[in-house]
Amino acid sequence: MNKIIKFFKKPKIGIIYILSYFKIFRLLPDKLFLKLKFKLMMNKKLNFDNVQTYNEKLQWLKLYDRKPEYTKLVDKYGVREYIAETIGSEYLIPLLGVWDSFEDIDFSKLPNKFVLKYTHDSGSVFVCKDKSKIDYEQLKKDSKKWLKRNYYWVHREWPYKNVKPRIVCEQFISDNDQTPDDYKVLCFNGKAKLIEVHMDRFANHKQDIYDIDWNKTDITQGYDEDSLYTIKEKPKEFDRMIELSEKLAQNKAHVRIDWFVVNDKLYFGEITFYDGSGYAPFDKEEHDYLIGSWINLD
User: Residues with Cβ < 8 Å from 202, sequence gap 6 or more?
Assistant: First the structure.
């Protein structure tokens, strides 16, 4: 009860937390849940019969675009087979192991640097840059918590509902202690239109958004418009990144394909169907409508 009172001191945060956390709210049908959460997060009524903005259309896609193969594509282990078959295994980050539980991991056999990901979740990542500094008890607690969580109930992103919870370990691919820049290619009905570039994600997170010709746009989502991290040259393998993104995006109304470029080599990151889960407001509302117009729901 004290926890509930504490959260209700900030009503908006408290209600969102309760909707996502307490199991009784799982009784709410997806449509009603999404309407409630959208109103709380975006301060705007969601009308599924007249979706126009980008964030609104992402909510619509959660409800009505439910192809069975999407479950495999968001599975951080299962998607590896799909990538190998579709564009080639050379774009996969080297795999060090996959386990059903934390206790199954033999850390003595892992290199000094590695990355743990959780197949069924979003945002649950452990980046190890020095194995001697791991707090194993805390990591064990975090892992057990993440393995128990069904991410579907948080935002009602349907593809995650039936992903098998597992821990995946991948090679740390940066050539230094910094995490590599993350290139997120937004595709609309099979065509790449925008590239989000995320930099320094675990410290001073910045984001720039470029068009397909590598011109920095004025589209922003809460980050400084004139980022000090603006990249002036296309990354190596940029054209190949766009080509492969569009190949992976075929027959999909909208999808985001993530990439890393390390030592001039292109690596696949993940596939996401709902950028920001449809709750990431744009600094200029006109951009929400513009990008939304690129999604053809027909």
Answer: 127, 179
Bridge-based pairing of strands 167-171 and 95-99 is antiparallel
Alpha-carbon distance values, 237 to 194, 225, 241 (Å): 16, 26, 6
pLDDT, tens digit, 9 for 90 and up, residues 33-46: 999 999 989 999 99
Of the candidates 206, 194, 223, the residue with the CA atom closest to the CA atom of residue 290: 194
Both tokens of residue 17? 């937390």
Is 145 in contact with 120 (CB distance < 8 Å)?
A: no
Q: Do 241 and 264 form a contact (C-beta atoms < 8 A)?
A: no
Element (H, E) at 184: strand 182-188
C-alpha–C-alpha distance, residues 116 and 119, integer Å:
10
How many whole angstroms separate alpha carbon 30 and alpha carbon 155?
9
Contact indicator for 69, 159 with CB cutoff of 8 Å: no
Structure pTM? 0.89
Residue 129, both tokens: 């840059």
The least confident of 7-21, 168-182, 235-249, 252-266 is 7-21
Strand partners, 114: 128, 171
Phi, psi at 92, each rounded to 5°? -85, 140
pLDDT of residue 108 exceeding 60, the answer is: yes
